[in-house]
Structure formats: structure tokens, C-alpha cells
Amino acid sequence: MIDFTDPVFQNDPHPTYAEMRRTGPVRRVRLPSGTDAWLVTRYEDARRALTDPRLSKSVAALGSSPAAAGQSAAGGPLSRHMLAVDPPDHTRLRRLVSAAFTVRRIEALRPRIEVIATELLDALDGRDRTDLIDAFAFPLPIQVICELLGVPAADQGSFRAWSNVIVAGTMSGDRLGPAIEAMIGYIRSLLAERREHGGDDLLAGLIQVRDSGDGLTEEELTSMVFLLLLAGHETTVNLIGNGAYLLLRDRERWERLRADRALLPSAIEEFLRYEGPVETSTFRVATEDLEIGGEKVAAGDPVVVVLLSANRDDDRFPGAGELRLDRPQNPHLAFGHGIHYCLGAPLARLEAQIAFTALLDRFPALRLAVEPGELTWRPGTLLRGLTELPVRL
Ligand code: HEM
Q: Is the pLDDT at 71 greater than 50, yes or no?
């Protein structure tokens, strides 16, 4: 029996997943929320499951499972986004925003993201110690996604608090409900304000699609904004945070990257593989009886792919347990796979590149301010990230 709430597991789930890959790679478990789900932990099974059309994302197929609803924040008006539906709805919703997230369009944001990174690090001038998550890894992506959508900077603090509760997954219902309500209310007021005053950002564009009756319901619009806001900042924070931690835990890596910046792209892919920001996929549900890795999964059963585990599978990655900044081939699943492959991957990669470059340039002597063993990881099985990363500047 795996105790997902055990702090030992939360701080380092890798040994448990390694054991599962060896002794029961596709296993039915009880999640902290009380729902039974199949966990898929090996790379090949994971990749196959993520492209299997018989594993549905539809909230309807998930039935009334409270855990499923909690994990994907699938409650009511926030549940009609592209990550919670199957084709053809998925195809339609994704197409509406995919043009804004191409590598080329995202690359055009580089100068602005560089300014944001520089400003955040400037603000640390004269300080000896800080929490790198709070001061840098979190505000950078949230500012970027807010600007992209057109969300006022002043509001960032409040929806950070709500989204933290929503993605924690294991939170009890009494905190989850109000956080979802607050988020819905916030997004609705944002849409109302933008409808009145117009604009030329992504939000205004989506409102236009909605209001011209071009196939986007009000619920889908609210859900889309919710998903982009949430996915846009709850994940990249952990890429920057986990990556910085991995570099500082073994400072030779930090020095090596400082000396050879050409390693940065492969280093970022390796952070994604080795300690990716997203621990598990969102829920899928079998629409018919099927087999995964030799196990019989019944129609209606929830299935969760453990991305963190698949990315440490020795059958796919030579020396999977080792962090290699120059790993030549890295087909990791940190951004998922198949039709729900992360829409924001080009943005996340660009943000990480800019963030690490700025950090290496600005604070060459950066080091951990605590022992690695003193660090704690965020609760819940959806995301993998540190609660704090105290550093000496
Ligand atoms: C390092 C940062 C990020 C990681 C590791 C990550 C990871 C993922 C993963 C694993 C999925 C698929 C989940 C599943 O199939 O169950 C996903 C989907 C998605 N991500 Fe990201 N993400 C990151 C950053 C972003 C950013 C910056 C955005 C910006 C808006 C974003 C937007 C999305 C969207 C919209 C989807 C749903 C795509 C679909 O259903 O077609 N992500 N992401």
C-alpha cells in the first residue's frame, strides 16, 4: 500500500515508483482523495496510454468521482477546457489558441521576458539571502502568462493563493470549494471588464470569438482562461525551482553550466526528465475494457500516468537515475504526449532558458542556504516542486 500523504513519499517519491516499475508497473491504488485509480509507471506503457483513444478525458466519463473532479478542478464552469475533453471538442478548443503558442510567436516574447527576469533579480540587489521560489521562480512565469492573456498585475497575488489550493489535490473539500468559487468569480469579472473596455491581448481575442458566436460557449471561455492561467504558472515555477535546486545541490553542475552555456538547452530537457514539474498526468478513464501492461482495466476505471516515473525508466533512458546535463537524446514525457501534449512547452522552455541565463550571469556565486535534506516538497501528487528554495546570493 502506498501512502501518498506520507512526508517521506512526498519528499522523495522516486524509490516508491522505482519499486512499482519493478514489481507492479500498472497497479490499482487508492488515492488520498479516496478514489481508486490505475497508476502507469513504465515509459512504454505510459506513452501508449497517453495516445490511446479509449482512454477518455471527458468529465462525463469520469462520472461523479470526487477525486477526479478535484484533481482536474473539474467542478462545473471550469471543467470545459481542452484538457478535460476529447475530440472533436478538444480539436476545436485547442485550435482557438494554438496560433498564440507556436515557437515563432513565443520567441517574439523573448525581449519582454528578459526584462521581467532582470527586474526580478534587480530587486534582490544588496540582499544576501532569499527564497528563490518566491522571489524569482514563481513571479516570472506568472507575470508572463498574465501579460500574454492581459490580466492585471495587481491581481496576481490572489489567484496564486486560489490556484495553490486547487492544484494541491489532497486539500480537503472545505478549502477547495471556496477557492474554485473565488477563481470563477475572478475570471468572470475579468471577462466583464474586458468586454467593456476591449484590448488586443489573448483574452480580448477569445472574447471576440465567443461573442461572434463562432463556437465557444461562455463556460468554455471561462474554463480556457482558467486552464491557461493555472497551467501557465503552476508548472514553470517548478522547472525553474527544481532546475536551480539540481544545479546547486551539486555545485559542480552550476559551474559547468556557467562555463559552457551551450549546454543549457540539453540541461533544461534533463531537468524536465529527471525532476519534472508535473508528477502525474491528469485523469483519464477507460471507455471500454482494455489492457495496459498486461493488467485488465475495466470500462469506467480511472487511469493516471506517472510521468515522473516513466522519465526514470532504465529501459528507455540509459542511467536514468543519473542527471546528465549533456544527455544527447531525451524523449521525456514531462510535457505529456499525444493530442494533449503541452500547449505551453515552447513558452516554458523559453522562460527557463531566460531564467537560468539571468541567474548564472547575475549571481555567479549562488548557493543553497540550507542542507538539501532540509528542503520540503509541495504536497499532492499532481505537481513536483519545492515549497521554498532558500539561497545565498
Ligand atoms: C515546464 C512547464 C510545463 C510543464 C512541465 C507542463 C506539462 C504539461 C503536461 C504534462 C500536460 C498534459 C497533461 C495530460 O495529458 O494529462 C500539459 C498540458 C497543457 N499545458 Fe502544460 N506544462 C508546462 C507549462 C505550460 C505553460 C507555460 C502553459 C501556458 C499556457 C501550458 C499550457 C498547457 C495546456 C493548455 C495544456 C492542455 C493541452 C491539451 O489538452 O491539448 N503549460 N502540460
A: no
